[in-house]
Each structure stands twice: as structure tokens, then as C-alpha cells.
Amino acid sequence: MSTATRTTPATGTGLFGRNVLNKVPEVTIYFWIIKILCTTVGETGADNLSSRYNLSDATLAYYTGAILVAVLVFVFAFNKYIPLFYWAGIVLISVVGTLITDNLVDNHGVALHTTTIIFSIATIASFAIWYGVERTLSIHSIVTLRREVFYWVTVLFTFALGTAAGDYIAETSGLGYWKSIILFGGSIAVITVAHLKFGLNAIFAFWAAYVLTRPLGASIGDYMSQAKADGGLALGTNTTSYIFLGTILALVVYLSITRVDQTPPEAEALPA
Questions:
Q1: Taking the CB of residue 132, how many other CB atoms lie within 10 A of it?
Q2: Helix (H, G, I), strand (E, B) or coil at 157
Q3: Which residue among 159, 187, 217, 266 is the one 20 to 30 A from 47 at the CA level?
Q4: Interatomic CA distance for residues 27 and 179, integer angstroms
Q5: Where are the transmembrane segments (predicted)?
Q6: What pTM, to 2 d.p., does this model score?
Q7: Spans of all domains in the chain
Q8: pLDDT band at 106 (very low <50, low <70, confident <90, very high)
């Protein structure tokens, strides 16, 4: 789906008000495909790191979080959207969000329904503060550093929320992986139809679908990686992660060459 609503670039001054070209990709089919692939890698990648290096989720979250910060330095340093850095950030934030949730559940005994509530509140608060300050939640308006910071903080919370809610529905409820794929994929389809056919607000539709891609991707990853006895295809987290990382890399290279997901300069000046 596309978030058609655009806002005029801000004219603020100073570090947080500096004007840049829109720092996120256009919402095309490539955006949704890569986003789901990234969420799958977040699930299988986190599991793979835990089993391979025998480190706690908290320790891994610190390490991957440090790498994420380093990547975001590059994301913030450029005044336009760079596919390689942007999607590297999304992959890493998916892993970090998964590790944060897993750490709370596995190491601190926080129930999945509790983490779902916690991250729901955090996500809503992030949206509320962002809107209260900027008066827009459109991803077509990420043209200042302050909006960019709001965007990435909100994305982190949506990943953590999607992990908690997805695990709660797929595992605690006993729904299973392939049924969860149908549930979350169907929910996204309903939102898409509601937007395209019945006028559901574009920005609300985008963020609702964005949150749901996280549990969808996680369910796909678990279905492919987990043992057949647990309802999976038994490909393992290592193989599954490499399959999706390779696909992400190929698509990012394609987008870097073709630039088909970059906002046209003339479109950025369209009024809200």
C-alpha cells in the first residue's frame, strides 16, 4: 500500500531542524517484500546468534545494538536515502528488537502478554509524541534530523511489539506457525483492501501493516527453520537466515542501481 499523504519539507533551523531529502524509500512492492524479509532475518538471525555463540540475549542485544548505532551514524550522516545503509539498519533493528523481547521473556520471566502490553504502550507513546511535536506521522515527511530520530525510535518499538505479539499468538495460543502466517498475512490484506477500496487513512493503514509484517516475517522464519516435530520445515536458523539475507542483498543492489524506490525531488514539495 502507499502512503499518499505528503507534507512540505520543514524549514526548521539548527541540528534537529536541518532540511534533507526524504530519508526513507518510497512505499512500493519492493519496500514490503524487503521489510518482511528483514523481519524474518530478525527472528532467525537472533536465534542463530544465540545458538552459535552461546551468549545471553542481553549480551547479544548490546553487541548488535552497538553495530546498529554504527550503521545509523551512516544513515544520519547522509542527507538522502541510501538503500544499503537504510536496509542494513532495518535488518539490525529487527534483530535487536527480537533480542530485547526474548531477553525479557526468557531471562526475566516476563510473560508474552505482558511484553505485548508494554511495547504496545511504548509504540503508542512514540507515535503520540512524534505527532505532538511534528503534527504528522507520514514517512514522506522524514526531512529533518528530528523526524528521522522519531522514525527510527518508533520502528524499534514496532519490531519489539511485533515480536512479542507474534510469539504470543503463534506459541502461547497454540495457533502454530503456518496458521499464524495466514492470520497475519490475511490481516495485512484486509488493511490493504480497506485502504484502497474503502478509504482507510493512508498513514494509519501503513503503520498498521508495518507492525503486522513483523509477526508475519517471524512466523515465516520459524516455519522454515524449526523442526518438523514443532510444525516447521527443519531448514535450520542458519540456512533460513542466509536465504533471506541473500535475497535482501540482491534486492538492495537492484534498488541501488535502478533507484526505483527513491522519492522524486518534485514530489517532496507536494503539500499535505
A1: 8
A2: helix
A3: 187
A4: 27
A5: 60-78, 85-105, 111-133, 149-169, 181-212, 233-257
A6: 0.87
A7: 24-260
A8: confident
